[in-house]
Amino acid sequence: MRRTGIFLAASFVTALALFFWYINNFTPIGEQYLQDENFTLRAEWKQLEEHIAHANHNLDELINQDDHNYRVILDLQPLSPNERYAGTGGAKPDYFDDVQQYSLIASTFKRFEKLKHQLDVEQQSYEELSKTADRKLAMWASRPAIQPIDNKDLTRLHTIFGMRFHPLLGYVRPHKGLDFTAPHGTPVYATGDGRVDNSYYSSSYGNVIYLNHGFGFETRYAHLSKYIVQPGDKVKRGQIIGYVGNTGTSVSDHLHYEVLFQGEHINPINFFQRDLSNQEYEKLIVQGEKEIISLD
Ligand SMILES: [Zn+2]
Predict the structure, then answer these.
(1) How many whole angstroms from 205 Cα to the centroid of ligand 1?
(2) CA of 231 to the centre of ligand 1 (A)
(3) Extents of the domains making up the chain
(4) Distance between CA 18 and CA 12 in Å, rounded?
(5) What is the mean pLDDT of residues 164-177?
(6) 258 CA to middle of ligand 1, Å?
(7) Fold (CATH) for 151-290
(8) Cα(111) to centroid of ligand 1, in Å?
(9) Could you point out which of 50, 79, 155, 203 has its C-alpha 20 to 30 Å from the C-alpha of 168?
């Protein structure tokens, strides 16, 4: 009996010793799970922080391009800091109070909200840039920016614009365009994208084409031997619309070319200098100042 008592006591002491040894050397299973989860969450959080930093960097690049490149090219004012950053401390979602007690998550959350707002602003800005670019492209394509006659076909350019002696009418009156001398049948080009307002025969202009380019611009092509476009037709810059002739009140084969802006005649020479070198352009200006008689 006494031996049994000793045995039980020894067993109890051994079990107690084993219990404390286990407690000291092994974390309880539940706590171990939480530690693992915490470790994973911290790793994920760190990754999230890196993603946000990366996105912020890319966004800064976009903002820089937007303000200092695209907006400069398109004649738009850069967005003010107020427009870019206003509202970043705005309304918070419901779960904000829950996350705010964890300072680590709260700071990430704030950075994320700021990034989201800036992205929204930037997206709107790029939409504005895209619309402006489309409008400017259409405007540039419509502008009467080339010569209506190829330089290789041009015999002479009468650059007189203003008062001059009319060779057939016999008196001085305004000459509202330029005269391009070229062989009969030389192709005549639309100088910008547009629509044909009219093409017909008139006793003064002869065979004439009226183009409307939008954005306030119109052009006229007179004394043609023939026109090959009809009212309502759409034309592209550089498209052949007719051929040089000597119809109407004209003394020889040539194209009489007019440019109008908002209903007023303007000197076409200011529009097609792209085809000429600076010297050629200067020469034409000087020559135009000397001329006193036009061809129509
Ligand atoms: Zn003329």
Answers:
(1) 9
(2) 23
(3) 2-142, 151-290
(4) 10
(5) 79
(6) 8
(7) Glucose Permease (Domain IIA) (2.70.70)
(8) 68
(9) 155
**Residue 230 CA to ligand 1 centre (angstroms):** 23
Q: Two tokens at 228?
A: 């090959």
Q: What are phi and psi of 13, to 5 degrees?
A: -65, -40
Question: How many CB atoms are located within 10 Å of the residue 130 CB?
Answer: 12
262 Cα to the center of ligand 1, angstroms: 20
Could you give the CA distance from residue 142 to residue 230 in angstroms, rounded to a whole number? 18
Q: How far is the CA of 291 from the centre of ligand 1 (A)?
A: 12
Q: Region 88-92: what's the mean pLDDT?
A: 57
Q: Is the pTM of this model over 0.70?
A: no
What single string gives the DSSP state of each residue in 234-293? EE-TT-EEEEEB--SS-SSSEEEEEEEETTEEE-GGGT-GGGS-HHHHHHHHHHHHH--B
Cα diameter, the chain: 153
Token pair recorded at residue 144: 């009467």
**pLDDT (tens digit, 9 = 90+) per residue, 218-239?**
999 999 999 999 999 999 999 9
The CA 179 to ligand 1 mean position distance, Å, reads 5
Contact between 219 and 176 under an 8 Å Cβ cutoff? The reply is: no
| Element (DSSP H or E) covering residue 224 | strand 217-227
Which token pair is 185?
């049948």
Write the pLDDT tens digit of every residue in 109-126.
888 888 888 889 989 999
Instruction: Give 137's contacts (C-beta < 8 A, 6+ positions apart).
Output: none
Q: Please calculate the CA angle 89-93-96 and round it to the nearest 5 degrees.
A: 85
Q: Check: CB of residue 146 under 8 Å from CB of residue 189.
A: yes
The rounded distance, in Å, linking the Cα atoms of 216 and 108 is 53
In this model, does residue 90 exceed pLDDT 60? no
